[in-house]
Structures are given as structure tokens and as C-alpha cells.
Structure prediction request, 263 residues.
Amino acid sequence: MSAMDQVIKIVNFRALPQSEQLHHKLVSANYNVFSQPLFEHKNNTDESSIKQLLLSSKAKKVVFVSRAAVEFAHQAYALTLWQASPQMIFIAVGQGTKLALQQCGISEVLTPAQENSEGLLALSELNNVANQDIIIVRGDNGRELLAQQLTKRRASVHYLSSYQKVWYNINCVDLIANWYDPLTKNSAIICLVITSVALLEKALSLLLQCQAEHIVKKHYYWLVVSQRIALKAQQLNLAKIIVAQGANDKAILMALETLKLKH
Prediction:
């Protein structure tokens, strides 16, 4: 079978509800797509912890790095109550996160044009931050680059882990049966959608349980949503890396167009 005859199959590993939203967008764009979230989000904070952090840090800037970070923080302590000071600045990593904040009653939200940590760091509001306290609302890990760079700018950075990732116990053989035919072996061009370093490492580890390393690392395409994840993918010796300009559905669809042009 020639490359021109091959089907491009998208494997969507995003967590719900983003996984479902992306799936529908991909189907509408006539992509062959299989969606399997590798983890779910669970609450990791409470009202008392948030109140204590807001009081002790006296932060005037709060950065939310995902919709889940917003939603779980709001469930624990309504975001409109965070605004004890009218100078509180809410910052979202992207448009999806901004919409989540607005749905929780926060009307004024700053968002970078480039929807990732690098874009956040380019915001003027996060440049002259010496001696300022900044809260980063995230999951149980991630955004170390953002925290490191803000610290270098002499800000005091505080993490609020509003949720945690709970990884599913997924059988590798059952998983790859959704796109890999052991008889034809190379019957489709596989592109995996990866939105974080943690998801990259988990997906790679899972696939290597039942597939040859050269297939996973040399034949699969890995679509990542930032240069930071791309760098990690390179360090893991992945050969085919596509970088989207953000984690939103539009950016992912635009990145997939480059793959279509190659085939």
C-alpha cells in the first residue's frame, strides 16, 4: 500500500470534556479519529486551603493553566470570592480557560495570543513582577517552566493544585487494536494528540508495553501543543513531531493540515 493510499488516523488522548469536543471537531473535518482519554481529573483542594493561600500570599495575580484548573478551583471556593481586592488580575492560558473563568463570573480575563507557557511569559503583566506574589492554579504537576521563569523575574510563585490526574488502567493490546492491524502492520498513518509532558510520557510508556520501539518512535506522528513538549519528545527520540500553536481545537486542526499536505 502506498503512502498516497494510506488513511490518516488520529488518536485523541485528551481528557474529558476536551476529548469529546476535539473528537467532534475532527469528525466534522472528515478525519478518521479514535478517542481514548488516558486519565480523569479529580478534586485536590478545598475552601480552607484556598482561603489560606489567598490570605498568606496576598497575591494580586492568578494564572489558570487549564479549564479543569478553573472548574475544580471554583467548585472548592467560588472564584468571585477570590476578588477580595479590586486589583486582582485573572490570567488564562488560552481561550478555553478564559471562557471557563467567564462562566464562573470573572468578566475581565487576560489571555496570551500564543496559548501556552511561553505565551503567558510574553504578557506584559507577567514581565515586571519583582517582589510580587503570583498564584498558578494547575493540576498535581506541570507548568514548571512558567514558575521557573517567573521566579527568575523575582516573583514569589505559589502553586494551587486544584485537581489531580488519575490514570486509567488501560491494556495496551486492546488499545492499539483500535488502529493497528497486525496483518497489514502499516495500514494507516497514525497521529497521536498529546497536550502535556505527563501525557506524552504516559502514552509512550503504555504503547511500548506491546509495540516495537521502532514503530512507536519512528513511524507514529506525535502532535504536541508546545515547543516545550516537542523538546521532551525529541529527548525521548521520537522521530515524527508536529507542533501545534496551542492546545485549542483550532490550533490542533491547523497543525493536522500540515500532516495532510505531506500525504
Notes: The chain has two domains: 3-38+168-262, 42-165. Residues 3-38+168-262 form a domain with the Rossmann fold fold (CATH 3.40.50.10090).
